[in-house]
């Protein structure tokens, strides 16, 4: 965590953004939506608060914000009778430039991009997200669905919020005879309610 984009991110408005919540060890706890964000106190309220988290627990957040995702450490607190996630910045050691967070959720690829134009697919491709980071996403899809350089729109639905993620395939690995894992970099993130 950290960096110039992170410093700008802590002052962004995360209201209505999708958030993935992890414990301190990086284990996935919950996916939910930010219902309110107090930028002065740097506190978030979320739609579904994880039962696993108690007051004074520390956790990690991955927030799908536009124009780029953000990562934060946070502490569970009580504020005004509500349980909130208080954001703070910290440092974290990892052998990658951008930390990956494991997710296990489905998504749909509905359109391909070519020369700045969006072309809807006749039938959406169902994919399973494997991990997500500030830089991109890895998902599993039917074997040879995409090639390096393909650009497309991924529709991710968490709770009742749909997020459109534009991405480009930068690598793939054939994991099983019928499936491939595709590594993609984000082009942009859009929000639709």
Care to describe what's here?
The chain has one helix at residues 4-9, and strands at residues 18-23, 28-38, 43-46, 58-64, 70-79, 82-88, 101-114, 117-132, 136-142, 151-158, 161-176, 179-192. By secondary structure, the chain is mainly beta. It has two domains: 4-88, Thrombin, subunit H; 101-192, predicted glycosyltransferase like domains (Thrombin, subunit H, Beta Barrel). The chain is elongated. The two termini are 28 Å apart. Residues 1-8 and 91-95 have low confidence and may be disordered.
Summarize the structure.
With 193 residues, the chain is mainly β. It has one helix at 4-9, and strands at residues 18-23, 28-38, 43-46, 58-64, 70-79, 82-88, 101-114, 117-132, 136-142, 151-158, 161-176, 179-192.
């Amino acid at each position: 965590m950290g960096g110039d984009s992170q410093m700008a991110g802590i002052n962004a408005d995360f209201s209505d953004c999708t958030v993935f919540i992890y414990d301190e060890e990086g284990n996935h706890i919950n996916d939910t939506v930010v219902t309110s964000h107090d930028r002065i106190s740097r506190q978030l309220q979320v739609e579904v608060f994880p039962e696993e988290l108690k007051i004074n627990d520390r956790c990690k957040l991955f927030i799908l914000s536009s124009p780029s995702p953000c990562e934060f450490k946070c502490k569970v607190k009580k504020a005004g009778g509500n349980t909130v996630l208080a954001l703070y910045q910290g440092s974290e050691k990892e052998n990658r430039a951008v930390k990956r967070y494991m997710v296990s959720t489905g998504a749909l690829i509905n359109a391909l991009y070519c020369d700045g134009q969006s072309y809807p697919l006749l039938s959406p491709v169902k994919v399973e997200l494997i991990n997500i980071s500030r830089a991109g996403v890895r998902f599993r899809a039917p074997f040879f669905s995409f090639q390096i350089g393909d650009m497309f729109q991924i529709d991710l639905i968490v709770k009742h919020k749909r997020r459109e993620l534009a991405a480009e395939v930068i690598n793939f690995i054939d994991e099983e005879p019928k499936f491939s894992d595709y590594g993609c970099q984000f082009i942009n993130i859009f929000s639709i309610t």
